[in-house]
Amino acid sequence: MKTLYLDIFSGISGDMFIGALLDLGVPFEQLERELQKLHLHDFHLHAARKHKSSIEGVKFDVHTHGHGHAHDDHRHDDHTHEHDQHEHSHAHSHSHSHGQSHSHSHEHSHGGHSHTHEHDHHEHGRTYAEIRDLINKSALSTWVKEKSNAVFARIARAEGKIHGKPADEVHFHEVGAVDSIVDIVGGCIALELLGKPRILASPVVEGHGFINCAHGRFPIPAPATIEILAERGVPISQCEEPHELVTPTGAAILAKFVEEFAPLRNLVPEKIGYGLGERDNKTRPNVLRAVLGTSISAATSTHDWETDSIAVLETNLDDINAEILGHVVEKAFAQGALDVFHTPIQMKKNRPGVLLTILCNTVDQDRFSELLLRETTALGVRRSQCERRKLKREIVQVQTNFGSIEVKIGKLNGRAIQASPEFESCRRIAESKNLPIKEIYQAAQIAAATLLAK
Length: 454
Hints:
The chain is an alpha+beta fold. Helices cover 31% and strands 33% of the residues. The chain is built from 12 helices and 26 strands. Strand 2 and strand 3 (55-64) form a beta hairpin. The protein is globular.
């Protein structure tokens, strides 16, 4: 399958991410059309080929209310901030075309510009619940909705932890603004237009110094950024650059999509794109390099299936309470495990036991190993890495006598060979029509079977 490698030697932000994907060939017009499905009418997009430290790439900007926001590296949630390194400042105020008035006073350093923003959106800004509702009511694809909500959820959980409140109640100031909603949803749209590649990245590198934010004077990484990366268990290293390099939005994109943080290996590059930031850094070009290519193992295959690597964690248990076992399974799923299951086995002295197995991304294997050691009676955990071969999957709508139902199809070499109704889609129709779910499911199976005959 196609692999996208993010070389984040100079950090990552939402607009740099989109700029890099546009440079790889994502059609700007299609991105623009898809974003219109959000029904936010107070912005327009701009993408241009520019240079940063003699590197040519794409500078992506969101222009709102007649102001071009070069918002590159700092989209902090629920707080304002100011970098020690800035050259001049300006303040501005404006009103949104949809009738909501906002005054802005924010401070942060972008390319020599420092800004001051104070937000008054629904008094405190959009909540995560409001943003999720905005996305879910749109006509965007199911995949884009799911991924966009997941990225926002990571930021909401981080801010909720910082402020001591539930994620749904977190008020987003700058991340709730139109430009940042566009960055996150637009990034997911761009990935879909690029073919939903597998995503890898170099180790996370952050700058050093301090920022002044609503939480007080904090060292870099900013509070939300380090919380987001910590939840995923992503290692962070700092460099000599005296600026923030990784924004909360950029951190959330990495935490959601990247399978592994490691040096580039076994990738045949096909296209290379550069997303440009606004600031002129002191020690490195302010660019995000994105490499699109094919892994060697996938390149030698005669099939178009998707490939990746996962960690397999196992432990044998013969003295665990069944209720605790169920709790561990639920907790592992809640923390992002790919799959969790237990199998009856026979242990020493013919004792009955269970083999508890967790499948997870390789970067998460230490975190889930600790979960098993802390939450079960295990004294040890076996770990191995496995390569997977996966059918290309997509969600389609099939028509039945009960209405339209979502079906997941699996394709090999361009042909559908698996088709399965989505249970939640069937459940919603069964509840709305007060019918047995098995009746809805059977109708969906019959309709799905026609997809396999094509």
